Amino acid sequence: MLKNIKSMKKITTIFAISAIILTVSCGKDKTATKDTTPAIAVTVSTPSAEGGSYLSASGKIEAVQNANLSTRMMGYVTETYVNVGDKVSKGQLLLRINSADISAQSAQVSASITEAKAAFKNAEKDYNRFKALYEQNSVSQKEMDDITANYDMAKARLEGANQMKNQVNAQLSYSNITAPFSGVVTGKFINKGDMANPGMPLISIETPGSFQVTALVPESEITKIKDGSSANVIVKSTNELIKGTVTEVSSSAKNTGGQYLVKVVLDKTDAKLLSGMFTSVQFPVEKTTKSNLILVPESALVKQGQLTGIYAIGNENVAILRWLRTGKTFGDNVEVLSGLAADEQFIVSAEGKLFNGAKVSVQ
């Protein structure tokens, strides 16, 4: 019995020692798994409360001289002479539309003109002869009046035939589509054998090298933009900045959905520009100060889908992603409507990849 009790005490002692060793071992493991990731060096700033000196609007590049060519007649396209990218000169034939009926009408009008000319010459001779006889009192007033009327009618018929010829020639011009100015073909919307309809765009051309931007500005801001003022145009695809001049400020928003059209002609540049490129146009406006306006640099924003956020500095120097509700754009700054306090620090740049909860070191 006594021997069994001693054995049990020995076993209990062994378990106690094992528990102590296990506890020490766990403590060592916990120390070994401590996070040693270095902090990411970041630069921080606070929001600006000063109003921007620029008003931004979205726009699109287009050639200063451009045209969509169409016809006023219906017919099949018999031949096309150009393709997209071809250079054309003013008056060059671009495509031809079937005009057999107009050509037949032209031949009929030409025959009518020939007939009218012969009748007019004959009437003119009779008129001159009777006029000489009338001055000699050799013909009566009635005979002179009849000859004069016949002469006037012949003259009128000739004039009518000539005007009909002009009308036919105008119709023929609608069947032969020519370039109104020298440029480059930018669009071809019909092929040989297709039916051309009145008013339907057939070919578009533009003059390269001279571009402008059309932007839509809301009514609350349009009065701040002046004709002849300078503007900065940022091409969104290349992020290039090009100087321009405001050449047209619309005074009506009737056909533009409440937005006012503003045109900016771009200065000569080596930038590769194409019609249709989207831009951001910055119009200089008078500088104002608003105590409740919070501005942050657009470069500091983080975008995920439809969400816009910014990294703020949290407790223990960790990056906290704050989702924002943004407003207007002022140059390179964006207005923050909610999500960031006016005196709260946010991260402007980082020397590593930021994520929510990342350790940071403020420089």
Structure, described:
The protein is α+β, with helices and mostly antiparallel strands and 363 residues long. The protein has 3 domains: 87 residues, conserved putative lor/sdh protein from methanococcus maripaludis s2 fold; 84 residues, Efflux pump adaptor protein, beta barrel domain (Elongation Factor Tu (Ef-tu), domain 3, Beta Barrel), CATH 2.40.30.170; 113 residues, Orthogonal Bundle (Helix Hairpins), CATH 1.10.287. It has a 6-stranded antiparallel barrel. It has a 5-stranded antiparallel sheet with strand order 16-20-19-18-17, with no helix packed on it.
Write the layout of secondary structure elements.
Blueprint: H1 2-32, E1 40-45, E2 54-63, E3 66-69, E4 75-80, E5 87-88, E6 93-97, H2 100-135, H3 141-175, E7 176-178, E8 183-188, E9 195-196, E10 203-206, E11 211-218, E12 230-235, E13 240-249, E14 259-266, E15 278-284, E16 295-297, E17 302-304, E18 307-313, E19 319-330, E20 333-338, E21 346-350, E22 360-362
Parallel strand pairs: 1-22
Antiparallel strand pairs: 1-21, 2-11, 2-15, 3-10, 4-6, 4-9, 5-8, 6-7, 8-10, 11-14, 12-13, 12-15, 13-14, 16-20, 17-18, 18-19, 19-20
Helix pairs in contact: 2-3
